[in-house]
Design a protein that fits this description.
Elements (H helix, E strand, L loop, with lengths): L9 E3 L14 E5 L9 H13 L3 E7 L8 H20 L3 E6 L3 H12 L3 E5 L4 H16 L3 E5 L7 H4 L7 H15 L23 H11 L13 H15 L19 H5 L5 H10 L6 H24 L14 H9 L11 H5 L6 H13 L4 H13 L4 H15 L6 H12 L20 H7 L2 H21 L15 H11 L1
Parallel strand pairs: 2-3, 2-5, 3-4, 5-6
Antiparallel strand pairs: 1-6
Helix pairs in contact: 2-7, 3-4, 10-11, 11-17, 14-15, 14-19, 15-16, 15-17, 16-17
Bound molecules: flavin-adenine dinucleotide.
Flavin-adenine dinucleotide binds next to helix 9, helix 11, helix 15 and helix 17.
Length: about 500
């Protein structure tokens, strides 16, 4: 049978470029960014290698105790998704193993040694830690003659195939991606059903309840949101609901008082519980229910903008994607520096911002949506970050605080799209110079008065007030009120649970 995964998606991280074909030792997939069984090129690549040599597949996941400010909200979502994944992997005859520790390369290497894995496939991350961890694993593995490679399972067009340099913006990346869609934007094969089962040294059972209890306790300052059901099954239900019922509204995506127009998919995309390529394929099939224009706009965000964010984080100067220095172009840094001494109309502390205690009712609503709902409407995100630039001491502080707030409260935080969103708003990344003004210099400005002409601010505020009330009550009772969902969409929760339970 022909390999399922194109070699163009894969590149070696060790110098022994060809995977070792000798052993019947397991092929290990170190799963990190792409936490799913379905539609996962990295897992398919591991299956290709395993089938070539009649070897089993072991999926290893390393659990950190802390990661970029993630709390119970994010760890809970991830662990519950992984618990479902373990059952799904088992059904596909792949074995799931958990390792622990804040130096993932060492933990993964120790497991690989224990089970005798000499071939390790990693998924790809453009973020600094992710790049370093994979390099560290390659160094450790090479010492024992093992082969490590990475497979971009997150992007439709692998990041390094799309471009080998920092792109100026969507207009330069769009065409490059489009040329490669015939090669990469294809239907996924199923996981092969003839994998050999693992029967090597015992792998410790994962104590899910204990892990969850510990993570929820440790991160209790930011509790889980109840509307976002973790896992692949729920992710697919959100996608199906969006393409069938809501994509037709997508042209209204910039109206925060009508949030059903958005897909709401970013939490599941961030944790890799669904593939963006799957979303693109299903959206295409739904043209007819939604207009071609709605599909085109959705595709632009889902693929072009999202993959542009990976390009930026991977190739920006020094990989400083969360600092002013990550902006390559001097016009933006120069203009911000030239206006660093401008008097700010208001100055707020981090605590005032966190508690939504500003003079601006729209900004406060957006911050409350983030804090209690775990996801802020996409349009408000831009306004919200720009006002942090306007109301803090310096652009450096604005960038730091916006990333802190986003990563602390957003389910989809700690993502390339988040770093780029903050960098676009505050440091002009992927943007151009605009009319010069106080504080912002030539960075694009957003005003309350012009925003209020674009959508009904009181309607948005009323919706957020209802959300906060529902969320506070859900935090206490564990109920799942639809009003607590910032996207106001609903999926068949009991159907999702039935499907997930059937796998377990
Ligand atoms: C200040 C700021 C912070 C942001 N923080 C994050 C973040 O932490 N995580 C995150 O995933 N996105 C972030 N974004 C980008 C964007 O706002 C969100 O992806 C979007 O709101 C997610 O909601 P959705 O899935 O319902 O969006 P939809 O409009 O339905 O979009 C579908 C998908 O397309 C992608 N997408 C949409 N807009 C963008 C964009 N502007 N840039 C890159 N990809 C995009 C996302 O993967 C999204 O899930 C941020 C933007 C700004 C301006």
């Amino acid at each position: 049978m022909a390999p399922a995964c194109s070699k163009k998606r894969v590149r070696a991280l060790t110098s022994n470029t060809e995977p070792m074909a000798s052993a019947t030792a397991p092929v290990m997939y170190w799963m990190s960014r792409d936490q799913r069984v379905d539609d996962n090129w990295a897992l398919l690549r591991a299956c290709d290698l395993a089938r070539e040599r009649g070897a089993p597949v072991v999926i290893a996941f390393n659990l950190l105790t802390k990661y970029l400010g993630a709390g119970a909200r994010q760890f809970g979502f991830m662990l519950r998704g992984l618990r479902e994944l373990e059952a799904k992997a088992r059904a596909a005859k792949a074995t799931f193993a958990m390792t622990y520790g804040d130096e993932p390369a060492a933990a993964i290497d120790a497991l690989a040694k224990k089970i005798g894995a000499k071939t390790i496939v990693c998924d790809f991350s453009p973020l600094r830690d992710g790049v370093r961890w994979r390099k560290d694993l390659a160094v450790l593995s090479e010492k024992r003659g093992a082969h490590v490679e990475e497979c971009d399972a997150h992007n439709v067009v692998p990041c390094w195939e799309a471009s080998d340099k920092l792109e100026v913006g969507a207009r330069t990346l769009r065409g490059r991606l489009a040329k490669r869609y015939p090669e990469f934007l294809k239907e996924f094969p199923a996981i092969p059903d003839d994998l050999v089962e693992y029967d090597g040294p015992a792998i410790d059972a994962v104590k899910w309840d204990d892990l969850l209890a510990e993570a929820l306790k440790r991160g209790e300052a930011v509790p889980e949101v109840t509307w976002a059901i973790p896992g692949e099954t729920a992710a697919r239900a959100v996608l199906d609901d969006f393409v069938a019922n809501r994509m037709k509204l997508y042209e209204k995506r910039n109206d925060p008082s009508k949030p059903r127009a958005l897909s709401g998919l970013s939490p599941w995309l961030h944790f890799g519980q669904i593939s963006a390529q799957r979303c693109a394929l299903e959206a295409k099939k739904a043209v007819g229910k939604a207009s071609p224009a709605a599909y085109d706009s959705f595709f632009e965000e889902l693929v072009v903008r999202r993959e542009l964010a990976d390009n930026f984080c991977y190739y920006c100067p020094g990989q400083k994607y969360d600092e002013m220095e990550g902006q390559k172009y001097d016009w933006a840094k120069d203009t911000l520096r030239a206006h660093a001494g401008d008097k700010r109309p208001y100055i707020y502390t981090l605590e005032q911002l966190e508690r939504a205690q500003t003079h601006d009712d729209l900004w406060n609503a957006a911050q409350r949506e983030l804090r209690y709902g775990g996801k802020m409407h996409g349009f408000c995100r831009m306004y919200w970050a720009k006002k942090i630039l306007e109301w803090t001491e310096s652009p450096e502080q604005a960038l730091k605080w916006s990333i802190y707030l986003n990563d602390t409260y957003s389910l989809d935080g700690r993502d390339p799209s988040g770093y780029v969103g903050c960098m676009w708003s505050i440091v002009g990344v992927h943007d151009q110079g605009w009319k010069e003004r106080e504080v912002f210099g030539k960075i694009r400005y957003m005003a309350y008065d012009s925003t209020k002409k674009k959508f009904n601010i009181p309607d948005y505020i009323a919706r957020v007030n209802a959300l906060v009330k529902a969320a506070k009550s859900d935090f206490k009772t564990g109920e799942k009120s639809s009003a607590a969902n910032p996207g106001l969409f609903s999926i068949d929760v009991s159907g999702v649970k039935r499907k997930a339970d059937a796998m377990a």
